[in-house]
Amino acid sequence: MPSRSIPAFQAAIRQATSGQDLSIDQTSELIDAMLRGEASEDVVGELLLALRAKGESVTELVGAAQAMRRHMTRIPHHHELLLDTCGTGGSGSGTFNISTAVAIVASACGVAVAKHGNRKATSLSGSADVLEQLGVRIESDAQGVAERLDSIGICFCFAAKLHPAMKHVVGVRRKLGVKTLFNLLGPLCNPAGATHQLLGTSSTDAQAKVAAAIEQLGTTRSFVIHASDGQDEVSLDGNTTAIEVTPAGQSTLQWSPADFGLSPATAASLSAADPVESAAIIQHIFAGKPGAPRDTVLAGTAAALLLVGKVSNIGQGVTQAAEAIDAGLAKTKLAELRG
Asked: Which CATH superfamily is domain 4-71 in?
């Protein structure tokens, strides 16, 4: 590690250990050094654990996201409105890949989608894992991803491919084996620059921090989601709270299963042991199979359609999502994504 980086990391570790938040610029410079490979695994690990013990702050999220955005491979496109359904993960609910299915159904409803995601980290099946199981080529380079987005209106932005500088921190993250600052950053660093985000979070604390961070980073309109049953998705088991973030500020929405006109569904009824089972559930939904998984995807898609202004209320969103599935449009969109 270059000697000029050592004092900055040591000072930041002392600062975090004493309970003081790092500034935006300070965090940004430290993450820059990490992503350039200029910091040893030991000092990176020490800093990440100190931030975790203190509790990562909004300024640290913003600074880290700014640095990651500078290092990512960007996806050019012509869409003025672009949706992402990537969340933070970490809820531990063990459900199938709901947000991935929602992304495909939303695209089938005519919304341009750049789904950002990675292989499993805190879940049994990551979005990359299930899409690969569904036959989607996840390893496309930036040009291939851009061509897919422009030609069919949906693409998958594989984080491992489009955030190449993350190779410098993969080892230490694996060695630490706990959630760190980086686990909250994925949704804040969409390579295609999504204008609208349906962004699931695993706790009310993470929800508040991510909403504040995305407000500072800039968004056209986003819903930062957390459900009362602990899910990082729009849930039909209790209430779902969405913090709406626009350039004008924040407001709060809340939905119950009755608002969607759908039957309650527990997380247990949505479980998938691995990517194979998750893919099978998604294929069954797109084939028209009724039940809790379909209803949960309808609810999530309804929220996405409301977010982008395709519908004026959540009930209309459910109807439009159901029509897209029943007309075979979601199944066709998945086939196009397989390409």
From this structure: Transferase, Pyrimidine Nucleoside Phosphorylase; Chain C (1.20.970.10)
Q: How confident is the model at residue 339 (pLDDT cuts 50, 70, 90)?
A: confident
Q: Is 119 annotated as a binding residue?
A: yes
120 is in an annotated binding site: yes
- pLDDT tens, 34-43? 999 999 999 9
Tell me whether residue 338 is annotated as binding.
no
Ligand-binding annotation for 233, yes or no, is yes
pLDDT digits (tens, 9 = 90+) for 223-259: 999 999 999 999 999 999 999 999 999 999 999 999 9
Say if CB 234 and CB 227 are below 8 A apart.
yes
Specify the DSSP element, H or E, that contains 91.
none
73 is in an annotated binding site: no
Cα–Cα nearest to 231, from 300, 334, 295 = 300
CATH 3.40.1030.10 residue ranges for the chain: 83-163+179-338
For strand 249-255 and strand 196-200, is the pairing parallel, antiparallel, or unpaired? unpaired
Alpha-carbon distance 87 to 316, whole Å?
24
Q: Top-level CATH class of 83-163+179-338?
A: alpha beta
Q: What's the pLDDT band for 177 if we cut at 50, 70, 90?
A: confident
pLDDT digits (tens, 9 = 90+) for 65-85: 999 999 999 999 999 999 999
The annotation status of 127 as a binding-site residue, yes or no, is yes
220 is in an annotated binding site: no
Q: According to the annotation, is 244 in a ligand binding site?
A: no
Q: Are 173 and 35 in contact (CB under 8 A)?
A: no
Ligand-binding annotation for 228, yes or no, is no
Confirm or deny that 116 is annotated as ligand binding: yes
Token couple for 129: 């894992």
Say if residue 77 carries a ligand binding annotation: no
pTM for the model: 0.95
| 118 is annotated as contributing to ligand binding | yes
Name residues whose C-beta falls within 8 Å of residue 76's C-beta, 6 or more positions apart in sequence: 146
Contacts 24+ apart (CB under 8 A), 143-150: 145/75, 145/191, 145/192, 146/75, 146/76, 146/77, 148/337, 148/339, 149/75, 149/77, 149/79, 149/112, 149/114, 149/192, 150/77, 150/78
